[in-house]
Amino acid sequence: MRDTQILKNRFYELYGAEPEVVSFAPGRVNLIGEHTDYNGGHVFPCALEMGISCAARRRDDEVLRFFSMDIEKAGVIETRLSALCPLSVHRWTAYPEGVIHAIIQAGYDIPCGADFVFCGDIPSGMGLSSSAALEVATGAAVSALFGLGISNTELALIGKSAENGYVGVNCGIMDQFASAMGKKDHAVFLDTATLEYSYAPLELGDAELVIVDSGVKHSLAGSAYNDRRRECEQALDALKSVTKLNALCDLSPDEFERYRDAIGDPVCRKRAKHAVCENARTREALAALDSGELEAFGRLMNESHISLRDDYEVSCPELDILTGLAWSVEGVIGARMTGGGFGGCMIAIVRGDAVDDFTGTVREGYLERTGLEARFITAKPGDGAHIIKD
Description:
- By secondary structure, the chain is an alpha+beta fold.
- The protein has a domain at about 5-200 and about 380-385: Ribosomal Protein S5, domain 2, CATH 3.30.230.
- It is about 40% helix and about 20% strand.
- Strands 1, 2, 3, 4, 5, 6, 7 and 12 form an eight-stranded mixed β-sheet that branches. A four-stranded antiparallel β-sheet has the order 9-10-8-11.
- Strand 6 and strand 7 (about 195-200) form a beta hairpin.
- Helix 3 crosses helix 4 (about 150-165).
- It is globular and about 60 Å long.
């Protein structure tokens, strides 16, 4: 989290007044359970200590002004409450605009405009969900600014609604939920079908959680992500002809094998296989973590990557090289791509005495094979969205 005073000073420089509220929402990394959230399954993310802060102040008109300290050259971007229109904005402000629009659509009263300044320390393009952090930070600030009393769970749903309906990315609930509901030193085990959740202590002993940036930026707004969603929906429709279910992840792996031939399209069949088996892996991973079986947890992470690579096809050559290098290092318990895919990050659990070997081997091998510099971050699980008090 960046220095809040720097954010406040920049706000004053831009708008000539102090902000009334400052909120913070973290990024997230998903331990396991990828592309299950929109298929009615379980996910297992943790919030990070890094994230996005939002300073805000009410105005006496309907103008909305947005400024990001991370995109200084974009300057202050202005719109109006009456001008908010889904799928019409193709700049970074689509995310906060979408949240304000979703809050109004949810029946809350926003009587006037506001000025906003954002700053963050989530490296862009890494798949650590800076978009969800931006949405949830905006929602928390708006709720506090206008005394709306929106719960953190509802903030997550509002963020998802904004990204789906206003931005046009057909994401699930995981990213926003982890950002809103994270807990320090814990992971969140979430049933995305019911929003029932529990916290699991992230006790790794002498091991560390290391995020490795591939240097390949991804765009979830691209057609490939929405293609996967559509392929899963087609698979679900086919399965409904032979069995009763509401979502792909209602099936166990054994049940999927029994009914899989109902899915005529082989690509859709592979997508469904990943969703069903990944959901089962995620449930097994919680049990492994609860019982302290880190080796079993790591094996499930490895299997997750293979499935994402082969069945869901959302990995990329660079992520496959990173994971292959990680798997070659003694002391690496497990490693997989994390996030939406098509670039972004790998996450690994590495024994403390192997971290230096891991870092050196992966950095050198990756540079040699791709010409890219890998970036390493030791992940610290942090708290979810909150208002920053003076």
